[in-house]
């Protein structure tokens, strides 16, 4: 697989951040046969060694959960599928208002959106995590958000590639 094909296929695994796939490929970290584990290890290493501003940019590229982009149909295909799987596309008016309130408070406090790997979670699970994590320190939440971004990337890769050789 050449660089353009690799970036086309995996550049969105870390939300709107193709630079991660580009750097992994350019560093010679990608070898065939591609597996979810190997590609994730390479991409996660690039993410972890990116500058603090670049990592923050990756976090900020994520949409609010059940936010304006979701309502307007402006999510990436992966994000829309993930949020729908957790029932975030079917919130009551009161639930939507609570998510909006928490999204706003979270972004004001931390400077990036609340990020959680929603696959396998219900809207109640997500809301409970939201209400707990909003009380974290910025450093705690930055670490947690980065871990969640890596988990989301792993789950996306597992849907694209076999897990092992």
UniProtKB/TrEMBL annotation:
Keyword entries, A-Z: Decarboxylase, Lyase, Purine metabolism
Pathway where this protein functions: Purine metabolism; urate degradation; (S)-allantoin from urate: step 3/3
Domain Oxo-4-hydroxy-4-carboxy-5-ureidoimidazoline decarboxylase residue range list: 1-158
The EC number(s) this enzyme carries: 4.1.1.97
Keyword Zinc-finger attributed: no
Catalytic reaction annotation: 5-hydroxy-2-oxo-4-ureido-2,5-dihydro-1H-imidazole-5-carboxylate + H(+) = (S)-allantoin + CO2
Protein name: 2-oxo-4-hydroxy-4-carboxy-5-ureidoimidazoline decarboxylase
Source organism of this protein record: Rhizobium wuzhouense
Gene for this chain: uraD
């Amino acid at each position: 697989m050449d660089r353009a094909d690799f970036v086309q296929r995996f550049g969105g695994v870390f939300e709107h951040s193709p630079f991660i796939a580009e750097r992994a490929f350019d560093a010679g970290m990608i070898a065939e046969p591609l597996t979810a584990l190997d590609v994730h290890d390479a991409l996660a290493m690039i993410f972890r060694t990116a500058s603090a501003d670049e990592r923050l940019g990756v976090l900020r590229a994520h949409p609010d959960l059940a936010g304006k982009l979701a309502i307007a149909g402006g999510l990436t295909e992966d994000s829309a599928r993930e949020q729908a799987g957790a029932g975030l596309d079917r919130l009551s008016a009161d639930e939507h208002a609570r998510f909006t309130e928490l999204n706003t408070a979270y972004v004001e406090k931390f400077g990036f959106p609340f990020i959680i790997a929603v696959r396998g979670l219900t809207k109640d699970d997500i809301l409970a995590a939201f209400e707990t994590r909003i009380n974290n320190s910025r450093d705690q939440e930055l670490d947690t958000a980065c871990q969640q971004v890596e988990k989301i990337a792993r789950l996306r890769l597992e849907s694209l590639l076999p897990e092992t050789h």
